[in-house]
């Protein structure tokens, strides 16, 4: 049976919404973005929200607004998507990688405490696969470091929470992605939410070339105003043409979470008594269940991917450890031993299909393939003993 890795759930109503924007004069950031920003402020209970054309550009605009650059250090996990570290590199600052917890795969809190230095200016915790980071424990570690900004990478966690709080509650800024495969998507897009009005105002400039506020309205008929540029910026604004896909998805995301939870729970139950390893969820976490990665012995991982593909199942790898990818390895001299937990997980992980439109038959075919084809490949006794 052929099983896709992901299929979006957008409908003809979403197409009609795009057609309606095509009937307006300017297509780019305008009233639709303003409407979605209001919706995000309400959803997350923050005082400000800013649409961006990707997580990556939203993060560049945010780090620019925080004044991060040369000689600064930013702490990031070793197990994440490359963008988390790349935005730090792009600004000429140094990403300081921290290994992850072997069970939750979230950035080690002890590792964060050890990585803090005089030069640390920010930290980017990642709510990996949908499981929210322990923001209160992080706050406690940073108690005496008000100079270290917290920027949440919420690309996997729009609708997730922990101990009753949501993204944006305990950080300077929380950044979302609306990339094609994310739980809320407009193909390419992102957003930043913040409770700091000074930061929000600065991001409003850094996301649009550094132009003075109000410049976005410069084309309004009969209202030409000169604009100025006081600081460096990037082009990170989202066009209304894409933003218009979001309001319905944001309004319904909480009702759609149980479908993802049911699929994830079915995988968890099916593999519970097998040698397949899975991310552990902490008590108090409500995961957004963005991705469902498993781990097999590194020695058979690529063979297992080939077997899944041969059975028609599309999979992905999220992720190989970032510091061991060529660019970071060559620039900073990391070895596989530098971040052993992220390295091990990254060498053995495979992400299975998980999206609301995945049918019961399709998921059954994935589970059968894992149990009947992949598990027999695992040297289970040795593997389970951790060798
Ligand atoms: C997808 C993703 C990003 C990047 O998002 P874009 O919108 O594609 O820039 C960043 N961090 C994580 C963890 C991601 O999965």
Compose a concise summary of this entry.
The protein has 387 residues and is of the alpha/beta class. Helix content is 37%, strand content 12%.
What do you see in this structure?
The protein has 387 residues and is α/β, with parallel strands linked by helices. Helix content is 37%, strand content 12%. It has 14 helices and 12 strands. The protein has helices spanning 12-22, 31-44, 55-65, 83-90, 109-115, 135-141, 197-206, 240-243, 246-271, 301-310, 326-332, 340-348, 360-374, 380-384, and strands at residues 48-52, 73-77, 94-98, 120-123, 149-153, 161-162, 173-177, 190-194, 277-278, 285-286, 292-295, 349-352. The strands form 3 sheets. It has a 7-stranded mixed beta sheet with strand order 1-8-7-5-4-2-3, sandwiched between helices. A 3-stranded antiparallel beta sheet has the order 9-11-12. Strands 6-10 form a two-stranded antiparallel ribbon. β2 (73-77), α4 (83-90) and β3 (94-98) form a beta-alpha-beta unit. α2 crosses α9 (246-271) and α3 (55-65) crosses α7 (197-206). The radius of gyration is 21 Å and the shape is globular. 45% of the residues are buried.
């Amino acid at each position: 049976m052929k099983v896709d890795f992901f299929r979006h759930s957008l409908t003809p109503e979403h197409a009609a919404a795009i057609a309606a924007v095509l009937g307006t004069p300017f297509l780019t950031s305008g009233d639709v973005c303003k409407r979605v920003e209001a919706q995000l402020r309400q959803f997350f209970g923050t005082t400000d929200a800013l649409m961006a054309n990707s997580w990556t550009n939203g993060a560049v605009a945010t780090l620019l607004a925080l004044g991060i650059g040369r000689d600064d250090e930013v702490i990031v996990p070793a197990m994440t998507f490359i963008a988390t570290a790349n935005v730090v590199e792009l600004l000429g600052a140094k990403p300081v990688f921290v290994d992850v917890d072997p069970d939750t795969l979230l950035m080690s809190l002890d590792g964060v405490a050890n990585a803090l230095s005089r030069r640390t200016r920010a930290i980017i915790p990642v709510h990996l696969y949908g499981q929210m980071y322990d923001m209160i424990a992080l706050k406690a570690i940073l108690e005496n470091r008000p100079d270290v900004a917290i920027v949440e990478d919420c690309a996997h966690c729009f609708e997730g929470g922990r101990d009753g709080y949501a993204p944006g509650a305990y950080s300077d800024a929380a950044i979302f992605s609306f990339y094609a495969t994310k739980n809320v998507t407009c193909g390419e897009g992102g957003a930043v939410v913040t409770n700091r009005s000074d930061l929000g105002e600065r991001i409003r400039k850094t996301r649009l070339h550094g132009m003075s506020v109000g410049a976005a309205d410069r084309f309004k008929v009969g209202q030409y105003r000169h604009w100025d540029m006081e600081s460096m910026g990037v082009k990170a604004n989202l066009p209304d043409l894409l933003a218009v896909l979001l309001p319905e998805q944001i309004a319904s995301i909480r009702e759609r979470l149980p479908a993802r939870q049911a699929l994830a729970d079915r995988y968890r139950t099916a593999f519970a008594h097998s040698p397949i390893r899975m991310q552990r969820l902490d008590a108090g976490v409500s995961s957004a269940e963005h991705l469902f990665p498993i781990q097999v012995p590194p020695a058979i991982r690529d063979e297992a991917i080939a077997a899944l593909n041969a059975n028609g199942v599309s999979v992905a790898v999220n992720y190989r450890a970032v510091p061991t990818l060529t660019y970071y390895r060559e620039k900073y001299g990391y070895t596989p031993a530098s971040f052993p937990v992220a390295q091990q997980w990254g060498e053995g992980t495979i992400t299975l299909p998980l999206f609301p439109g995945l049918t019961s038959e399709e998921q059954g075919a994935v589970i059968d393939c894992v149990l009947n084809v992949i598990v027999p490949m695992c040297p289970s006794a040795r593997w389970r003993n951790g060798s």
